[in-house]
């Protein structure tokens, strides 16, 4: 479903980005990144090293359709939710989403190469506020923007995920130091 060029594009970090190698147990059944067929969502996650915010490359496949030829708003909101949650995890906050706002700005053509940017904007005790943007990969068009409130949970609730997440991010630091 994806061309070889699309796969190569998805997997190639931009300058200043490090690839996040997420374990199979996180990815395989993930609603957002668990589809390897290319029919629905195809994503790769990265860290933007200068400010440790999150980047993702994403292609919305034909199975994400809402309006004919364009992505469903729920699929864009799900991508923003995942990326914003990932941005919080990446900064050491084991969170779940409590509230999410998405603003749909421009219809997103299926198959377009897109970039997601997500960053923690404020932390107040257990409340972690995160913002995000889904834009054209090779241009300035913004398809959607998101804001969300995430709540930090006791790391024990996530079992092995919390230690896996720390391991992934410390490996990234070793690789980029
Ligand atoms: C998981 C992957 C890990 C690895 C990540 C690694 C790399 C990342 C890269 C890629 C991305 C991969 C994964 C991304 C990760 C996540 C993305 C998915 C995110 C989701 O999709 S996750 C599913 C949907 N999510 C839920 O299924 C939550 C259901 N819900 C609950 O589980 C509870 O509801 C909870 C825990 C939210 C709160 O419950 P609680 O009992 O612990 O705390 P409590 O209620 O006391 O609230 C404490 C303070 O938050 C305020 N507060 C609470 N809720 C609020 C609201 N809605 N609006 C405004 N304020 C709110 C209160 O007002 C109080 O404020 P105050 O202290 O000031 O009074």
TrEMBL record:
Family: Belongs to the THEM4/THEM5 thioesterase family.
Keyword Oxidoreductase: no
Superkingdom of this protein's organism: Bacteria
EC numbers for this chain: 3.1.2.2
Protein name: Acyl-coenzyme A thioesterase THEM4
One GO CC term on file: cytoplasm
Matches recorded under CDD domains: PaaI_thioesterase
Lineage of the organism: Bacteria, Deltaproteobacteria, Bradymonadales, Microvenatoraceae, Microvenator
Reactions the enzyme catalyzes: tetradecanoyl-CoA + H2O = tetradecanoate + CoA + H(+); dodecanoyl-CoA + H2O = dodecanoate + CoA + H(+); (5Z,8Z,11Z,14Z)-eicosatetraenoyl-CoA + H2O = (5Z,8Z,11Z,14Z)-eicosatetraenoate + CoA + H(+); hexadecanoyl-CoA + H2O = hexadecanoate + CoA + H(+)
Keyword list, A-Z: Apoptosis, Cell membrane, Cell projection, Cytoplasm, Fatty acid metabolism, Hydrolase, Lipid metabolism, Membrane, Transit peptide
Regions crossing the membrane: none
The UniProt record lists the keyword Membrane: yes
Domain Thioesterase: 69-142
Location(s) in or outside the cell: Cell projection, Ruffle membrane; Cytoplasm; Membrane
InterPro entries: HotDog_dom_sf, THEM4/THEM5_acyl-CoA_thioest, Thioestr_dom
Topology of the protein relative to the lipid bilayer: Peripheral membrane protein
One GO BP annotation of this record: fatty acid metabolic process
Molecular function terms from GO: hydrolase activity
């Amino acid at each position: 479903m994806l061309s070889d060029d699309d796969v190569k594009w998805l997997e190639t970090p931009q300058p200043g980005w490090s690839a996040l190698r997420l374990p199979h147990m996180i990815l395989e059944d993930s609603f957002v990144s668990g589809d390897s067929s290319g029919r629905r969502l195809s994503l790769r996650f990265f860290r933007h090293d200068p400010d440790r915010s999150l980047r993702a490359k994403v292609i919305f496949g034909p199975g994400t359709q809402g309006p004919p030829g364009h992505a469903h708003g729920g699929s864009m909101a799900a991508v923003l939710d995942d990326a914003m949650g990932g941005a919080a995890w990446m900064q050491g906050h084991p969170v779940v989403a409590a509230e999410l706002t998405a603003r749909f700005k421009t219809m997103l053509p299926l198959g377009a190469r897109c970039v997601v940017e997500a960053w923690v904007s404020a932390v107040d005790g257990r409340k972690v506020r995160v913002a995000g943007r889904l834009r054209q990969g090779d241009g300035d068009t913004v398809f959607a923007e998101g804001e969300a409130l995430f709540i930090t949970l006791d790391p024990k609730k996530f079992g092995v995920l919390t230690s896996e997440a720390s391991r992934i991010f410390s490996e990234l630091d070793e690789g980029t130091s």
